[in-house]
Design a protein that fits this description.
This protein is an alpha+beta fold. About 45% of the residues lie in helices and about 20% in strands. The strands form 4 sheets. The protein has a 5-stranded mixed β-sheet, with helices on one face. Helix 1 crosses helix 3 (about 170-200), helix 2 (about 140-165) packs antiparallel against helix 3 (about 170-200) and helix 6 (about 240-255) runs parallel beside helix 7 (about 315-340).
Length: about 350
């Protein structure tokens, strides 16, 4: 289940938690004694809420009951993560004096296909009256923290190390790149941080200073980007289609597109010429975008050669090639220029 969150930080991230302990379904017990955990009204007798997170599932067989119990427990995380981040966003909006904030979307997924941290299950119980099996999925909060904390600490250290490399950088565009790389490290931290906070908030607060550092760096990065003017120049793009798309993407990122008094020049070189081969036209589209300072010093480069495109007419082949180039830019331009994350 996916939840789209907005909390003032770059993230589009999907979390699959695979370093977990997973409990198995044991042999069903068809006894007459109804366990207290079968109902949320009495489950605290067995699994006190302060110590456990629980989910109850029922089904025609133990496997179905366990799947439903896992899904029920996963919904707890979805609701709590959403609540935590929305509260944080409201706090930031009230306390940030910048009127023109940029809304950033983050996607966090708690997947029932993945194994949740410290997940265990009760034995199944067969309710003869309903002819259904019941299972309770549960997580001990303290045991889960013992699994979470080493990984959370590692992510926090990765972010701090990356952030420190940007502190002394004086060249603005290079500083932006280094900050973005630190924020990319922060994505890993946040994925686990919010999950951890929903399990054991008191323990997770030990890392709240990292959350504050990330938010501070985000706003510093946003302010720095908003001061950068970039001029675009294109070659091999007679109708300025790729030039326009590049300007749109850079503008959406926060850069100022200006054809005068720009501190940086984005030079776009495109190879998109269709050549006839027997009865069809073939294109092997290529693009290279170089960000240079006004003195000609190269700062960042994005380069990509796409796969073969064919059509029965020259115009159609080149049009399809432009479509593919635009899609490629939308997907990977910013990742390659600023985060240095290579497309897969």
């Amino acid at each position: 289940m996916k939840i789209l969150l907005r909390n003032g930080f770059f993230i589009t991230i999907t979390t699959f938690l695979c370093f977990m302990i997973y409990g198995c379904v044991s042999t069903p017990h068809k006894n007459s004694t109804t366990p207290a955990w079968i109902s949320y009204e009495t489950i605290n007798q067995v699994f006190p809420e302060k110590e456990y997170i629980t989910g109850i599932g029922s089904g025609v067989n133990p496997t179905t009951a366990q799947l439903k119990a896992d899904a029920e427990l996963s919904s707890y995380f979805s609701q709590n993560i959403k609540s935590i981040t929305q509260a944080e966003e409201n706090y930031l909006n009230k306390n940030n004096s910048t009127s023109s904030q940029k809304s950033i979307n983050r996607t966090i997924t708690i997947s029932t296909d993945s194994e949740l941290i410290g997940l265990k299950h009760t034995d199944s119980f067969f309710n003869k009256k309903e002819n259904l099996y019941y299972i309770c999925a549960y997580i001990n909060r303290n045991e889960a923290w013992k699994l979470i904390e080493p990984k959370l600490k590692s992510y926090a250290e990765n972010f701090e190390n990356a952030k420190s490399s940007s502190v002394n950088e004086t060249e603005p565009f290079n500083k932006i790149i280094l900050q973005k790389r630190a924020l990319h490290e922060a994505e890993e931290f946040y994925n686990l941080y919010y999950l951890s906070y929903s399990i054991t908030p008191e323990n997770t607060k030990l890392y709240s200073h990292i959350d504050s550092e990330i938010q501070k760096l985000y706003y510093e990065n946003f302010e720095l980007i908003s001061k950068i003017k970039i001029q675009t120049v294109s070659h091999g793009d007679s109708i300025n289609r790729i030039k326009t798309k590049t300007e749109e993407i850079l503008s959406n990122e926060g850069f100022i597109i200006s054809q005068t008094k720009a501190s940086y020049i984005a030079t776009i070189n495109i190879t998109n010429i269709a050549e006839k081969s027997e009865d069809i036209y073939l294109v092997y589209p290529q693009i290279r975008i170089t960000i240079e300072k006004s003195d000609g010093t190269a700062i960042a480069v994005y380069s990509k050669q796409l796969g073969k495109i064919s059509s029965y007419t020259k115009e159609a082949a080149e049009r399809l090639a432009f479509n593919k180039l635009e899609t490629e830019l939308e997907k990977n331009l910013i990742n390659n220029l600023l985060y240095d994350k290579r497309s897969k």
